[in-house]
Structures are given as structure tokens and as C-alpha cells.
Amino acid sequence: MKNIFLYLKQILSTSFLIILSITFIIAGISIGIQQPSYATTLEELKLIPPEYKPNLEEKINRANEFDPGVGIQEEDRQNAYEQAIKDSENLNTLEKAYERNLKEERGQNQENLVDKASELIDKVTGK
Which of 9, 49, 112, 116 is the most exposed place for a label (fewest CB within 10 A)? Predict the structure, then answer.
């Protein structure tokens, strides 16, 4: 009688472990195969046709509608892109653009160095 209970206990524990492991495997597979969410609905996709390509002005206006700061960033980015296109047309202008960017970068670094030094002096003197 005791052997029967031990045998049933062993069968139940192994079957429980098998069922538990299968459950975890299925859960892991279902988590790994999630469909991407593009945060839009079918109705929104129908409103904007796929062949619609907004020009620069429309992009900037749309960015300004959401947040004026974003519109300014978009304008700056577009201006920098146009300047890079102009600079890349000639090797001499490309070198000048490199020197201009290098000067701007050095100027920014110097400002940061001065700011850090003044903060350190204030910290040491206890102001």
C-alpha cells in the first residue's frame, strides 16, 4: 500500500513538472512572437494616402503645430542639411566647412571649460 502511494506521488510530481515546463515554454514562445505596434489605426492610414510626400514647408508647419520648439529644430536641421549639400559640391568649400565646424566645436569646448572652472572656483570658495 505504501509503495502504491509513493508510486502515485512520483507520477503526479513528474506530470506536474512536465505540465509546468510546457506552460512556461508556451508562454515564452508567445511573448517572443508579439506583433509590432505602429500606433495607428486603419482609419488613420486611409486618411493619408501612401503616395503623399510632404515638402519641406509642410513638414516644418506640421512640426510647428505640435510644438514650436520642434519646428525650429526642424528648420535648423534642414538648413544644416542644405548647407552641407552646398559645401560638398567643391573640395575647397568642403575644407572651409570643416574648419568652420572645427572652430565652432572648439568654441563650445572652451565655453564649457570656462563654465566648469568658474563652478569649481565657486565650489572651493564656498559661494
Answer: 49
Could you list the mean pLDDT of each consecutive 10-residue stretch along the chain, which spans 127 residues?
85 92 87 66 67 76 72 77 78 75 74 76 81
In the three-class reduction of DSSP (H, G, I as helix; E, B as strand; rest coil), residue 54 is classed as coil
- Sequence-distant (6+) residues with CB within 8 A of 88 are 94
Residue 48 lies in a domain: no
Distance CA 127, CA 121 (A): 9
Q: SS3 for 31?
A: helix
Provide the number of structural domains found in the chain: 2
pTM (2 decimals)? Answer: 0.31
Q: Are residues 126 and 116 in the same domain?
A: yes
